[in-house]
Design goal:
This protein is an alpha+beta fold. Among the domains are: about 50-205, no CATH class; about 225-365, 2-Layer Sandwich (TATA-Binding Protein). Helices cover about 20% and strands about 40% of the residues. It is built from 10 helices and 26 strands. The strands form 3 sheets. Strands 11, 13, 14, 15, 16, 17, 18, 19, 20, 21, 23, 24, 25 and 26 form a 14-stranded mixed beta sheet that branches. Strands 5-3-8-7-6-4-1-2-9-10 form a 10-stranded mixed beta sheet, with helices on both faces. The chain is globular, with a radius of gyration of 30 Å. This is Regulatory protein YycH domain-containing protein. InterPro entries: YycH, YycH/YycI_2. Keywords: Membrane, Transmembrane, Transmembrane helix.
């Protein structure tokens, strides 16, 4: 018994030493972790990615000099002007008419003034988005506003090398003004202003208490095109829109309709008209979205997979319903179809896409059937105006725009027929003044 206390002391000392050894082993332990390889997600593309300037394009350039109008829809002329934008810094942007809304006559006067180029856009463009094309010295303080006419006034460039920029919103009746300094005035006048003398002469069609219309003075030489059909595989879009394409199941609903679903979203494919419609119901939202964010989110979603497979241009936006539409153009002219097969449409939901509707065909000039190309002369814009004034079929005061475009029909090939169109409330109507009545199609 006399050794009990000694045994306890020895045992306690042993346990303390053992605890210290285990602690040191834990502190100095370095496990050999295996390398975790990142999962490579294959990027699916249906076309080449584009810049925002490729989509934010006007449908017309109208020049005013020496009391005359000249106009063009040439993509090369537009690209020439856009090439200057990166060198411009817009200064002193201010709202001119802060105390009153502009009248229609006042807005007509703005466009009618000499030495000005007016760029006509189909839809209002938010300033915050346009900063991707044109720099502003007060980017952070730009108003949450927009414009649908950009006017370049070169009246004083020869004296101070300064170009006046006017941003007109004909819907909200607002006019903003800014200035930019030209690095090479002579070059700008030679490459942008001087060539306008060779463009088509235009006339202003004035209307009582309404915005003026602008149409060509002479008959228009155009071309009827026929293209072979070229399609994008619907399986590519299945890989793009669905989170896990492997669990997506197809279901043939009819002879021309197939429905793909992963139980949370679905994609309906119209195999006859080559249109697909993807919907993710859980993302539906009515929460307010700023126009600048709505447009940016829409563009980025489509562009991330190269979805602008041709000359698609921003054409309309319904902020309340979160809808953004892009119209197909060819050779500077819009393409209209009664099946809306010439538009891409997105509806934004809660932090992601809710609806994505688009064609899955492409129009490539390499596929043009040259033997079926036909030259066609359209009557002048003045003759169209005379026809519209005399017919009871259309209400002249309700017309928002008159343009030349292509009427699109699809069979074994794509047929693009040049024609005159009137636009009212974003709905097109093809008109045929050459014969009684005419063909009408609607596009909302």
């Amino acid at each position: 018994m006399k050794y009990v206390e000694q045994v306890k002391s020895i045992l306690l000392t042993f346990l303390v030493l053992l605890s210290i050894i285990f602690t040191l082993l834990i502190w100095n332990y370095r496990p050999e972790y295996g390398l975790i390889e990142e999962t490579q997600i294959e990027e699916v593309m249906v076309g080449e990615q584009k810049e925002l300037k490729d989509v934010l394009k006007p449908y017309r350039l109208l020049y005013r000099q020496n009391g005359q109008f000249f106009g063009t829809v040439s993509p090369s002329v537009l690209n020439e002007i856009y090439s200057y934008f990166p060198t411009w810094q817009t200064n002193e942007l201010e709202l001119i008419n802060s105390n009153e809304k502009l009248s229609d006559e006042r807005m007509n006067e703005v466009i009618r003034a000499n030495n000005r180029i007016t760029m006509f856009f189909n839809e209002e463009i938010p300033f915050q988005v346009f900063t991707n094309l044109l720099s502003f010295n007060n980017d952070k303080d730009l108003p949450e506003s927009s414009f649908n006419r950009l006017i370049l006034d070169w009246s004083t460039v020869e004296t101070n090398n300064q170009l006046e920029l006017l941003f007109l919103n004909t819907e909200k009746r607002l006019l903003f003004r800014g200035y930019t300094n030209l690095r090479n005035t002579d070059r700008f006048l030679a490459e942008v202003v001087k060539p306008a003398e060779d463009y088509s002469p235009y006339v202003e069609v004035e209307r009582d208490s309404l915005l003026s219309l602008y149409v060509s003075q002479n008959p228009i030489q155009s071309t009827r095109y026929t293209y072979l059909v070229d399609y994008i595989s619907e399986s590519l879009f299945k890989s793009i829109v669905f989170t896990d394409p492997k669990i997506v199941k197809p279901n043939k609903e009819s002879e021309q309709s197939v429905r793909y679903t992963d139980n949370t979203s679905f994609m309906t494919v119209d195999t006859k008209n080559r249109i697909l419609n993807y919907v993710y119901p859980l993302a539906e939202s009515i929460a307010p979205i700023k126009s600048s964010k709505l447009l940016s989110d829409s563009f980025n979603y489509i562009n991330d997979h190269g979805g602008f497979t041709a000359d698609y241009r921003f054409s309309s936006m319904n902020i309340g319903k979160h809808i953004v539409d892009y119209q197909l153009f060819l050779h500077g002219l819009p393409i209209y179809s009664n099946m809306t097969t010439s538009r891409i449409s997105t509806t934004w939901g809660e932090n992601r896409i809710f609806r994505y509707r688009r064609p899955f065909y492409t129009i490539a000039t390499a596929n043009e059937i040259n033997r079926e190309r036909e030259q066609k002369e359209l009557i002048s814009g003045e003759q169209v105006i005379e026809y519209l004034r005399n017919t009871k079929e259309y209400s002249f005061k309700d017309i928002d725009e008159i343009v030349v475009g292509y009427h699109f029909t699809q069979n074994e090939a794509f047929v693009l027929e040049p024609s005159w169109f009137i636009i009212s409330n974003n709905v097109f109507k093809q008109i045929s003044p050459e014969r009684t009545g005419g063909i009408t199609d609607g596009l909302e």
